[in-house]
Design brief:
By secondary structure, the protein is α/β, with parallel strands linked by helices. The chain is built from 18 helices and 18 strands. The strands form 4 sheets. Strands 14-15-13-12-11-10-9-6-16 form a 9-stranded mixed β-sheet, with helices on both faces. A 5-stranded mixed β-sheet has the order 2-1-3-4-5, with helices on one face. A two-stranded parallel sheet has the order 7-8.
Length: about 500
């Protein structure tokens, strides 16, 4: 796509008319695939009193007739181009989900034709395409599921194949979970600095260092309280994940104390994976690495994002490529073999050649896990606030991912989990790759929503999973560290909902 066309898709406004249907959520998400930065206005009605003008619009009508059943009408007027599609359905045997699926497909084809943009995941806009694949596969063959994704969701064959591969590895891990299983997430919402692409609620240490002692003191209390609840309910701990933020921004003593609180209060005899996010290589030194290596089943995530120092500067990371090499070497020398490394495709200032160099250097370090993220351009990020130039609807990120996937496959890695985010460059995905027989357990459990996640700390969300159905109840902690500290008693009170939830079916 040429630059002029790309620019026209990234600004403007469009009105969406929904007649006799309420598919607002799905239609908006679908339109965002093609017009990510357009201002969208909706008009909903059960009567067709619309007067269409020469302004950009999408008109979607479900027309109910006695003779023909349902007539689906989709009209689009965008930047001077007008397209229309109609489809007749049997109204007596059609569910709303089927109608929504057909309308989405009709709209997708029209917008693809007008914009020349062809999203690889088709009309799939959700976070968990592999979970969707698994639900369609239930009771059917892989071929049936593949055909369904191709014909109904309009997904690209390469993405369908990727989802099928990920599912084959995820299924093995999911089956390890018991009805009383759970994972523990602990949040450290502090970072050395704010990355340009970050939209998470975290604070730089320079601005919030005074909060850390009080925060850790209260976090310790929440961990102990949560551990008592898990013990009383006879829950089985499968994985632990300390994330953020950047947990390794804490001092060695503080991080050691935090981990000790966890292992001393939870029954970790069944725990098969303990991950600590060490996202910034410059927060690691020999003392911290040696301390981490003393704990069982430890998995450390050291995230370079790129090995291009100029790109690191653009995105606000204070470390260099050499810091990553040094951190990985320290970890391996300390006996930590279970290392994950995160990379991002589509970073501002990065090129295809530079990204390929990053992939090559990453594979040479031979980590157990590599996670390939696609840049997600979030409204709250500095990239958007500063209007940094980000390519949209181009082939660059697609090529980057293809290179990464082929290189990792050749090096003995397999895709073990996958998820998507809104406003990802080129509407791609994030994929975790593991070597040999390894799989990142927590990542699979959180994405599949396999079992309960008990979460502690600012911004943490406890997800309670009913083991007998798909019911999930969420308990939200306050987002900011200062809120967590000032309203801690409310957080402890909310945690009581965990017991109430399990008592309903015990």
């Amino acid at each position: 796509m040429n630059a002029e066309c790309t620019q026209s898709l990234n600004k403007g406004k469009i009105k969406i008319f929904l007649i006799n249907n309420d598919f607002l959520y799905e239609i908006e998400n679908l339109v965002r695939l093609f017009l990510p930065y357009y201002k969208i206005d909706f008009w909903e009605s059960d009567t067709d009193t619309v007067s269409l003008s020469d302004e950009n619009y999408i008109y979607i009508k479900v027309d109910k007739t006695q003779a023909l059943g349902l007539i689906l009408i989709v009209r689009v007027y965008l930047n001077g181009i007008k397209k229309e599609s109609k489809l007749a359905l049997d109204g007596d045997n059609t569910f709303d989900r089927d109608i929504e699926l057909e309308i989405s497909g009709m709209l997708f084809k029209i917008l693809s034709e007008i914009t020349k943009v062809h999203p690889k995941w088709g009309i799939i806009t959700g976070v968990r395409p592999v979970k969707l694949f698994r639900s369609v596969l239930k009771g059917h063959t892989v071929k049936y599921c593949t055909d369904y994704f191709k014909n109904k969701f309009l997904a690209d064959p390469q993405k369908i194949e990727l989802a099928a591969k990920v599912n084959s590895y995820e299924q093995k891990v999911i089956e390890l979970s018991k009805k009383n299983s759970f994972s523990l997430y602990v949040s450290i919402p502090f970072c050395p600095s704010r990355c340009a692409y970050c939209s998470f609620v975290s604070q730089s240490v320079e601005k919030s260092i005074k909060l850390i002692p009080d925060y850790l003191n209260l976090l310790t209390k929440e961990i102990k309280y949560t551990a008592k609840i898990a013990e009383d309910l006879s829950l089985r701990l499968e994985t632990i994940y300390i994330g953020g933020g950047t947990p390794t921004v804490l001092s060695c003593d503080d991080l050691r104390s935090l981990i000790n609180v966890i292992v001393e209060n939870f029954d970790t005899s069944s725990c098969r994976e303990f991950t600590v996010e060490a996202g910034r290589p410059d927060t690691l030194d020999k003392e911290k690495i040696d301390m981490l290596s003393s704990f069982e089943n430890i998995r450390v995530s050291i995230n370079p994002q790129t090995f291009n120092d100029s790109v690191l500067q653009i995105i606000g990371r204070k470390h260099t490529a050499n810091d990553t090499f040094r951190a990985v070497e320290l970890a391996k020398n300390a006996g930590i073999s279970n290392i994950n490394m995160d990379l991002i495709a589509g970073l501002p200032g990065d090129s295809y050649r530079s990204f390929c160099d990053t992939i090559k250097k990453t594979i040479a370090l031979n980590p157990s896990f590599v996670t390939i993220h696609t840049l997600a351009v979030k409204r709250a990020s500095n990239i958007v606030k500063n209007r940094t130039d980000i390519p949209q609807n181009s082939l660059s990120v697609e090529k980057m991912l293809e290179k990464a996937y082929s290189s990792l496959s050749s090096a003995g890695y397999h895709p073990y989990y996958l998820y998507r985010q809104s406003k990802m460059v080129d509407n791609m995905e994030n994929t975790g790759w593991a070597k040999g027989n390894l799989n990142g357990l927590y990542n699979i459990y959180i994405m599949d929503e396999t079992h309960t996640i008990l979460a502690c700390g600012a911004g943490a969300v406890t997800k309670l999973k009913n083991p007998f159905n798909f019911q999930i109840k969420r308990i939200f902690n306050f987002k900011f560290a200062y809120e967590y500290i000032s309203r801690f008693n409310e957080i402890i009170e909310r945690k009581g909902q965990v017991t109430n939830f399990y008592e309903e079916f015990q």
